[in-house]
Amino acid sequence: MDKPRGKKYARRALALLLGCALLFLTACHSDGPIDIELREGESFTVAVAEEPDSLNPLIATSEAAKEFFLLAYDPLWRLDAEGKPVACLAEDYSLSSDSLTWTIRLRQDAYFSDGVQVTSADVRYTYETMMVSSPVYDPCFDGISDIRCPDSFTVVITTDYVKGDMRINPVPILPRHIWGEVSGDLSAFENEKIIGSGPFVLQAASDDPQDISWTFRARSDHFMGESTLGSVRFVYYGSENGAGRAVSMGDADAAIGMTDVQLTTLQGVPGVRLIQSYLPTSEIRAIAFNTRKGVFTEQAMRQMIEYCCDRAWMLSMSSGDGGMTGSSWASPGASYFYDIVNLRPFDASMGEGILFSFGYGDVDQDGKMEDIVTGDKLTFKLVTSSKDDWSSTAGTVLSEALAGIGVSLNWQTTDGDVQDICLPKGDWDMCMLSWRGSANPVLAARNFRTSVNSLTGWNSESFMNAYTQLCSATDEISVQNTTIQLQQIFYDECPYVILAYHSDIQAIRDDRWTGYEDVLEKAGGLFGIGSIEAYMTITPGANAEG
Predict the structure, then answer these.
(1) Does the N terminus or the C terminus of the chain have fewer Cβ atoms within 10 A?
(2) What is the pLDDT of residue 423?
(3) Separation CA 287–CA 433 (nearest Å)
């Protein structure tokens, strides 16, 4: 069964909403504001192909927003370029003998960008608010049952089970004195000023159609030390082509969020270094099966579809060189990724053999498979989204392969998300969808844990047992071994066919900038890596080719 949210969760949330302000005032106080020092220095311009969907961390899901939060906020622990947790606001911690109580000591030199000191009240407020109001970060709090702040710089967190992923928690710590004063629905708060304790401060934002941009100024007084940059400016160029053109023309110093098209257009441009990255959060593309109805309740029939998936051709036709064929639910950029051995190959004849074994055949010799008892033709309902360019191509390739063995597709395309049509108990057989991975293996595996939370209805006792072990794993070897087991179970039972991993394509003007090489070597990319190290180390330099 699922890991419980925490036995005391509802009571703690109610206490927060009804009366914990008095406790915060008595146990978690802070000194008055100080003056924040901003650094002078070179500005680094990043061309982006998307705008942030929101500046509110409770609801924002876009990659642009996550990058903004990375600069402006601090979590308790950050990830370094290798994806390992390092102390941030949490200066140190200790665990009880049963590993269920975390006593976290906070730094005393951390201040929000309005000069107010960060205290345990902010941590507690953030965590309990996220539990109630944030569908984005809510999964990070599974198992947490109690949060206390006995003094201004100590947070005590109690869990219902050994929570191995406590330090792989990207939740940005919010200023209680700002958010606690918001009336009404917190998810409606626009948060345009972004008051955070991070090493950069949102100094300016422009919504001028000719200059949609956000400028973050580096702090001189941040406990992480000074960035070598004076500021980072994100400029929205309207499209991937626009972002790529900006960096090739020298109007931007870097570009992120590009597609395989830019791999061709930017190749060989003097001074531009292309970076094709597979990050922990890289996009994963897949076919999902409705295991609640029809023939796809049978594992072998789901594997039949995989035998008809020419992954390499799907990828080549949809993304060119902008990705790699898939096998596992984890991104290849994740430290726990396991590339499945003995992957079932593209072999439609193997799929046809499975159909024969289930009592299908072309009895009337019309080129169509039918149930040899009832005579019903074999047709599957496939749902794709027009928002996913790749799914149309992949669907066409699959349709041709299935037609070759006498199987038809009833193909429906939606202008929205496929989940809007493919409800857990909806009338569908297959859908094509994508998601982004996570540096936290617990959060990544969580999406497939039970039929209650699964789009497909897949419910695996072996997967759930391994997932329970992963939740409590505290050492790297146990995490690695358990995630390998989870990925193998998932593949063997085939609730999805993982088609491809889409690469994150970035570029930097290496004729102007240096200092980032170590980060690139460790993380495989500079931006979107879940670490702030690139922004802290990129250094201006003439003719600084890497």
Answers:
(1) N
(2) 81
(3) 6
Q: Which amino acid is at 340?
A: I
Q: Are residues 483 and 393 in the same domain?
A: yes
Q: CA-CA-CA-CA torsion for 254, 255, 260, 263, nearest 10 degrees?
A: -20
The contacts of residue 52 (CB under 8 Å, 6+ apart) are 60, 62, 64, 65, 68, 214
What is the CA angle 399-401-406, rounded to 5?
85
* Pair (313, 272) in one structural domain: no
Predicted confidence (pLDDT) per residue in 464-508, tens digit: 999 999 999 989 999 999 999 999 999 999 999 999 999 999 999
CB 507 within 8 A of CB 267: no
Tell me the residue type at 268: G
Note whether 202 and 292 are same-domain residues: no
Q: Which residues pair with 158 in a beta bridge?
A: 101, 146
240 and 309, same domain (yes or no): no
Is the pLDDT score of 9 beyond 80? no
Q: Are strands 379-385 and 408-414 parallel, antiparallel or unpaired?
A: parallel
CA distance 499 to 208: 40
Average pLDDT, the chain: 91
Q: How far apart are CA 198 and CA 321, in angstroms?
A: 36
Are residues 407 and 315 part of one domain? yes
Predicted pLDDT of residue 38: 87
Q: Which two tokens stand for residue 97?
A: 């003998």
CA 310/CA 315 separation, integer angstroms: 9
**Alpha-helix residue ranges (DSSP H) falling in 424-475:** 441-446, 461-472
**Does residue 226 share a domain with residue 176?**
no
Please list the residues that pair with 277 across neighbouring strands: 504
Same domain, residue pair 241 and 387: no
Q: How far apart are the first and last CA of the chain?
A: 50
Edge-to-edge, what's the strand order for the sheet holding 272-277? 200-208, 211-218, 231-236, 43-48, 254-258, 504-509, 272-277
pTM, two decimals, is 0.88
Overall average pLDDT of the 33-40 stretch: 88
Rg, C-alpha atoms of the chain: 25
Q: How many domains does the chain have?
A: 3
CB proximity list for 292: less than 8 A, separation 6 or greater: 424, 425, 451, 456, 457
Q: Which of 483, 502, 521 is the last residue of a domain?
A: 502
- DSSP, collapsed to helix, strand or coil, labels residue 27 as helix
Mean pLDDT of all residues in 329-333: 94
Q: Torsions phi, psi of 46, nearest 5? A: -110, 120
Identify the CA nearest to 312 among candidates 380, 393, 386, 404: 393
Q: Which domain holds residue 446?
A: 283-502
Cα 452–Cα 455–Cα 457 angle in degrees, nearest 5: 60
Can you give the CATH number for the domain in which 162 is found?
A: 3.90.76.10
Q: What are phi and psi of 215, to 5 degrees?
A: -115, 125
